[in-house]
Amino acid sequence: MSRSFSTYLDLVRFIAAFLVYLYHSNMRLLVEDILPASNYGHSAVTVFFVLSGLVIAYATDTKEKTWPDYTSSRLSRVYSVVLPAILLTPLLDAVGRALYPALYGYPWDRFALRIAGCTLMLNEVWTVSITYFSNVPYWSIAFEFWYYVLFGLSMFLPRPMRLPAVLVCGLLIGPKLLLLLPVWWSGVVLYRWRWLQQRSLGFAWCLVLVSTVGIVGMHWLDLYAAWPGALEDTIGTKWFTNLTFARFFLADYLLGFLVFCNFAGMRIVAPTLEPLLKPLDKPVKAVAGYTFTLYLLHQPLFLFWTAVVRGDPKGHGFWMLVTVLTGLSVWAIGHVTEQKRQPLRRWLKARFQRLSDSLQRPAPGTAGV
Fold it and tell me: Could you give the CA distance from residue 369 to residue 367 in angstroms, rounded to a whole number?
């Protein structure tokens, strides 16, 4: 993966995270005007899924070649931010609710169930949908976590065990999570498909331009509203409701394909844009290092700061102040969590490596048999 393409992906990652923030912060108690580009929250999550599959395929091809490496890296990546989010969300909500109750139209009950279910990533299995208090974006973390598990099973188990293990895991998590798996897996295909990497520069530019027009066009046509409506008419309201965040899967498939084409083209095009991308490399990588914290904690944080500041939603000054305070909070939290996850990774790897060694060690009395 070229340095310029990596910079482009980091830029996309940060923009997607900020679009999710725009989507959730576009509330009339914070700002009366509808914010520009504030309706692309779910679309941004779809981009994250494709990007995640691509990055995981790259990591397992270049660095995480054993299951202790892979498992320790994935768990440290997830839980270095998830555990602080599990702790901070109800604390921030408790203060915010006391200061500004009208701001919070989110569940505030069944604490043990919500904490346990979300910590164990069981919040979106089958027809279950557990909202973690005000932290609505938490839903996608469970999806991505189980995609990590499925990918790991398919990569690191002995070959005869891979398919049965994947099938059992799929049965346990249910069809809702599996509906969006093709979007995530498209990133894996993108990394591994050598034919795509050998196309001409002209072909790559066509992919970039056509995919960009397609992404703009599908949102201009508002397919994220039209297609779910048609799906509800087809399968009925009950089944449609049970799909929760996977109910957009038809539009997600189209957007995922367009993002796939965009990334495939930019992988070839990016080196030719080196003069433009190189100056962005360090600042983009710096902010991209906090995107997971931004994604997972932005909603409880901006609600908390909205409740604390209690400004005037007319104009954009109140929104901008809350956004700055949220950004500073993300930096402070991410600096001691996401940016410090390596000690957790090393601790986990040591224990998984010890387990791996013990599983490979011959049983007593079998040596030389």
Answer: 6
The C-alpha atoms of residue 154 and residue 241 are separated, in whole angstroms, by: 31
Residue spans per domain, the chain? 3-353
Q: How many helices (H) and strands (E) does the chain have?
A: 18, 0
Q: The tokens of 318 are what?
A: 């109140």
Which are the contacts of 360, defined by CB distance < 8 A and separation ≥ 6?
none
Q: 204-250: per-residue pLDDT in tens?
A: 999 999 999 999 999 999 999 999 999 999 999 999 999 999 999 99
Tell which residue, 362, 330, 311, 259, has the closest CA to residue 53: 259
**What is the model's pLDDT at position 366?**
55
pLDDT tier at 1 (50, 70, 90 boundaries)?
confident
Q: Under DSSP, is residue 132 helix (H, G, I), strand (E, B) or coil?
A: strand
Average pLDDT of 172-194?
Answer: 97
Q: Which residues touch 100 (CB under 8 Å, ≥6 apart)?
A: 306, 307, 310
